[in-house]
Amino acid sequence: APIIMYDPDTFDDISLANTQQLISIAIWSVLDSNPEPDKYEYTDGGMLMPQKEVEEKFTSLFGSDVKWKHETVDGGGIYFTYSESKKAYIIPITGVTPVYTPKIIDSSERPGSIILTVGYLASTDWVQDSEGNIVAPEASKLMKITLGKNSDGSYFVRAIQSAD
After folding, report:
1. How far apart are CA 146 and CA 113, in angstroms?
2. In what order do the strands lie in the sheet containing 113-122?
3. How far apart are CA 35 and CA 4, in angstroms?
4. What are the residues whose beta carbons fall under 8 Å from the beta carbon of 46, sequence distance 6 or more?
5. CA 104 to CA 142: how far, in whole Å?
6. Taking the model in full, what pTM does it have?
7. Cα(87)–Cα(50) distance, rounded to whole angstroms?
8. How far is CA 14 from CA 39, 66, 89, 158, in A?
9. What does 26-92 look like in DSSP terms, one character per residue?
10. Separation of alpha carbons 107 and 84, rounded Å
11. Do the beta carbons of residue 116 and residue 145 sit within 8 Å?
12. Rounded distance, CA 161 to CA 154, Å?
């Protein structure tokens, strides 16, 4: 979900991806895991997320071969400011509505990888029917997400491509 909600640029190889977008996705992924608020230190600017936590999430999502550096990034209209002195990202305390919600349409396996066809459901297109049930919209777009397999059996994002 954090990958889809941010709607990053496409890339055929993770080494060609926009690392600022990947950092934002890693931060959103930590936030999406509903961490205990008391776990973090706070400043006037917001919550301090230790860089080590971002590094671990980044590696679990995108593998260990991507070269990147800590820096202030745009997290979809919310800036995550990197503090070198605190070795942490300053996360503003605010609400956010994701741009998209994922829906897996199809999957296929290849040796060492899985290819997902993912529908991007626009957050603004969800409706309620006459009986009060939430109705999911049609996918705004379809993307192929290739997951590579680590030696420990876990998966990481290798590519994000248009399904067209």
Report:
1. 7
2. 100-110, 113-122, 141-149, 155-162
3. 20
4. 90, 91, 92, 93
5. 9
6. 0.88
7. 6
8. 31, 7, 23, 5
9. HHHHHHHT---GGGSEEETTEEEEEHHHHHHHHHHHH-S--------EESSSSEEEEETTTTEEEE-
10. 41
11. yes
12. 21
- Measured at the CA of 159, the angle between CA 156 and CA 163, to 5 degrees, comes to 125
CB 83 within 8 A of CB 91: no
Query: CA 74 to CA 23: how far, in whole Å?
Result: 9
Count the neighbouring beta carbons within 10 Å of the beta carbon of residue 91.
Answer: 22
Contacts of 45 (CB under 8 A, 6+ apart): 81, 90, 92
Determine phi and psi for 46, rounding to 5 degrees. Answer: 145, -160
Tokens of 143: 């993307």
pLDDT digits (tens, 9 = 90+) for 103-161: 999 999 988 899 999 999 988 888 888 998 988 889 999 999 999 988 888 899 999 99
**Amino acid letter, 116:** L
Helices (H), 1-136: 2-6, 19-32, 51-62
Question: What is d(CA 106, CA 114) in angstroms, rounded to the nearest whole number?
Answer: 10
Tell me the two tokens of residue 3.
């990958």
156 φ, ψ (degrees, to nearest 5): -140, 160
From residue 109, give the alpha-carbon distance in Å to each of 3, 12, 14, 91: 20, 17, 19, 37
